[in-house]
Write a structure and sequence with these properties.
The structure is a homodimer. By secondary structure, chain A is an alpha+beta fold. Chain A is 26% helix and 34% strand. Chain A has 2 domains: 64 residues, Winged helix-like DNA-binding domain superfamily/Winged helix DNA-binding domain (Arc Repressor Mutant, subunit A, Orthogonal Bundle), CATH 1.10.10; 134 residues, Chorismate lyase. In chain A, the strands form 3 sheets. Chain A has a 6-stranded antiparallel sheet. Chain A has a two-stranded antiparallel ribbon with strand order 1-2. In chain A, a hairpin with a 2-residue loop joins strand 4 and strand 5. The first copy, chain A, starts with 5 loop residues before the first helix and ends with a strand. Strand 8 of chain A pairs antiparallel with strand 11 of chain B. Chains A, B: One of its GO terms (molecular function) is DNA binding.
Chain lengths: 250, 250
């Protein structure tokens, strides 16, 4: 669950280098099986790496035909818009952003104990007004504010005091911290909505108050059957967007 | 690809009846394997059915523990907010809505030939201004407008004239019509955004112009490597919302 997507990132980098060394614009790349053999990784890893390169616009894929060089690797340009998230993997967003070669940073991060709002109380299944942790973060990509996250966690998880301090830096992530309490996050649910950016969120994202923003209301469910984390995310859509991909097996 | 989710809908209905007949509030349901045996369906079908019942609020699931009756089956109440979509299955939204026991309808549907706008031309890979099909539909759930869809399709798909007339009724769906041209949709991409409802969309959805709405920009890729369908959807979020679920394997 907690692995940063290192294998796929390394495979993506290896394929970038392969393209730079051996392939021209429009060339067809070797098959997934052949790439897996050459890179000595699994086909799953190759597929994840190709997904990332496709999102970067480096390759195009003609279904049933193959994968082609659409653009030769060069310095990253243009806004960052996509990070490949395997739906079966619940991990750290900064790790994923770093894995694409972009630099994540946290220009704003604060953890504080607050009384649970009605919404946070309902999500976490605690009494309204009970003290909980609230973590407010702004995640930037290559220096541009991209996502504002409001996380809510009970003061104790699985009876163990929970300290969110590590997530106010890039090194920490909630799944790891929750895991340290002997609990494992096994399910994340994110409800997608449109909203108008309020003053606070707008200021952090660098947009005008009242700008329409994509938001998610997320709950992370532990293997104990309880919700251990409730998160509201706000995305600045010129910088970060969510792409849902559905495929039919070949 | 085109199967309406009949098996899962039938399994969900069978589990509803099972709960009504044999189970009380708070009771634990049999395991997935046991339900699969009793219903004589696959575990995949049971899982999809339980996903639907969970979205309906009928059951709760304690991960690693089991599935419990959260609410006894009764007449559907409250707004419809969720339809379970398996990400590996590209199918018909009205079919899925019907499979949850709700009634889909099309209070508005129109197909017309129009010159391709820059956005539609770019998505479909045709010259700007080339004549294409534009289908505008409003999909209602139990009589309440829920989704406005703007579909764009070339006049010919795979060299075969394309007639969108069937999708202006509930019986037709794009994957089937595209398949009739000898082409198969193998990949759908949906980019999620927040926008303000314009006059036309607002009127169809029954909301005020300027209301923030969730929208998706979708492209459907055929096995020939081309985009055969470009769709913009607008969701009325009090009626229909999108829930992304990520799970970690047990």
């Amino acid at each position: 669950m907690m692995k940063p997507p290192k294998r796929a990132a390394m495979a993506a980098q290896a394929i970038r280098e392969l393209i730079a060394a051996e392939f021209e614009l429009g060339d067809q790349l070797p098959s997934e099986a052949e790439l897996a053999r050459r890179l000595a990784v699994s086909r799953v890893t190759v597929r994840e790496a190709l997904g990332q390169l496709w999102l970067e616009g480096l390759i195009s894929r003609r279904w049933g035909v193959g994968t082609f060089v659409r653009q030769r690797p060069g310095p990253a340009a243009g806004p960052f818009t996509s990070v490949f998230v395997d739906l079966h993997d619940i991990g750290s967003l900064p790790h994923r952003i770093a894995a694409t070669g972009r630099t994540p940073s946290l220009p704003h991060a604060r953890a504080e104990q607050v009384p649970a709002t009605p919404e946070a109380a309902a999500a976490l299944g605690v009494p309204e007004g009970e003290r909980i942790w609230r973590v407010e973060r702004c995640l930037a990509i290559d220096g541009t504010p991209a996502i504002v996250l409001h996380d809510h966690v009970p003061l104790k998880v699985n009876g163990v005091p929970f300290d969110p301090a590590p997530v106010t830096g890039l090194g920490g992530d909630f799944p790891t911290l929750v895991h340290a309490t002997g609990t494992r996050i096994v399910r994340d649910e994110a409800r997608l909505e449109a909203a108008l950016a309020g003053e606070g969120v707008a200021k952090l994202l660098g947009v005008d108050a009242g700008t329409p923003v994509l938001t998610t209301r997320q709950t992370s469910h532990a293997d104990t059957g309880t919700v251990v984390l409730s998160t509201r995310c706000y995305y600045r859509q010129e910088v970060f967007s969510i792409l849902l991909v559905r495929t039919v097996p070949y």
